[in-house]
């Protein structure tokens, strides 16, 4: 038996197959169920105790040698088969564990839309490059209204003096487009970027984001508006929050109001964020002006509606205490990373 082991040792050491199938054949020949080495193990079982001691170690060494030799040759064969430039796309990237994060405006936008979504509001979007009619005319802005002034609005093309092309100053234009295309009941929220000709500072920017809402149906009342806004405020700032509506003016709503929420930081006692008032302003709202319904061919005798609008940056400011509007557009990763 020792002789046979020596002979097989030689055979194994001499084998130098380079192709994977040859190496596999050799493995079966040696270590397969009926392989030469495997059969030696069967013979080994027949030996007496003393003989076993003498041969056992040699036999194990032979088996290990064969396994090692086959593994080495297989590895070489695999390396030879692989194309030189092969890239394993399933391998995790080494050393790069930097993840991106969502922009705070995107986070807040989806939070707002999700809350109104629960009340059955669907999302409507429209173009950022608009015309005067959709941004002002259909919304009951008088022809000489100051918002139309070059000071506030970015005009793109004023050749058509009656209906110039401009960048929308609010997403109320999407409400107009919705009323053009859809009969009541209408229940939409309109998120989007808007532009105003303002000098850029910590508190003002020439572009920002709004979510506006519109609800038109039979018997829609101011109480519905109030309840909707209260629901929104509670979902956004917590159950303890209160809202306050202050009389205001917008050409497209009557009556109109500014909406405040109780300061979530000081609980209404007064702090430097709410400037000691206990209230934070979040947006405008009101009952859709009958002239706006008429301009969009909706009969104000049959239908009524409410509308509201709020700035997304403003809500992020209130929720995360971001004091400088410019941070939203600079894309400094040190700022953005905080909103994972
Ligand atoms: N469109 C107004 C703005 O941009 C907000 C608003 C929307 C006010 C709807 C009342 C009703 O300031």
Helix content: 40-55%
Tell me about the largest β-sheet. Answer: 7 strands, mixed
Helix-strand string = HHHHHEEHEEHEEHEEEHEHHH
How would you sum up the global shape? elongated
CA distance, first residue to last residue: 70 Å
Q: How much β-strand is present in the residues?
A: 15-25%
User: Strand order across the biggest sheet?
Assistant: 1-5-6-10-9-8-7
List of distinct ligands in this structure: phenylalanine
**What integer value in Å does the Rg equal?**
38 Å
Low-confidence stretches: none
Structural class: alpha+beta
Number of helices: 12
Short description:
It contains 12 helices and 10 strands.
Descriptive notes:
With 340 residues, the chain is of the alpha+beta class. The chain is built from twelve helices and ten strands. The protein has a seven-stranded mixed sheet with strand order 1-5-6-10-9-8-7, with helices on both faces. A three-stranded antiparallel sheet has the order 2-4-3. A hairpin with a 2-residue loop joins strand 7 and strand 8 (253-262). Helix 1 packs parallel to helix 4 and helix 2 packs antiparallel against helix 4. The mean pLDDT is 90. Residues 170, 172, 212, 250, 253, 284-286, 307-309 line the site of phenylalanine.
